[in-house]
Fold this protein.
Amino acid sequence: YNNPDTYQFKPEWMEELRKISNRNYTTGFFLGSPGAESHNYSSSAYIREYDFVGLIRDYNHVTKEATMEVRNKIYKGDKIEILTTDGNSFINSIDYIINEEGERVEDAPHAQELIKFPVERPVEPYYLVRRRTDKNEGE
């Protein structure tokens, strides 16, 4: 906006937008009033390659475990992506899950349940946790 002559689109921005549940993106009203060709009448289904599975609440530097508020069911063995507040992300495997009673469990099925799991690097509150919807089968 401030310098349109030197603006450069970053492909990683579009990649990140595609990870958000959507029904195909259009320019909307940006280029004027959309015509009939701008609408997707073939399907009203959402494109969802990732599920939002939780929100980081805390991190223990001694045990190297994150505390996460669950939003969608998560399983031991899942590969998750942790999205930081600066826009970066990293992949982490859920090697074990500890529930609110301090027990190791195979899954965390309840929304807003607080669980702990090991993380490969320190995390902070409000980091988002998502899982690719088709990547965990058979891994």
Observations:
- The chain has one helix and ten strands.
- The CA atoms of residues 27 and 128 lie 27 Å apart.
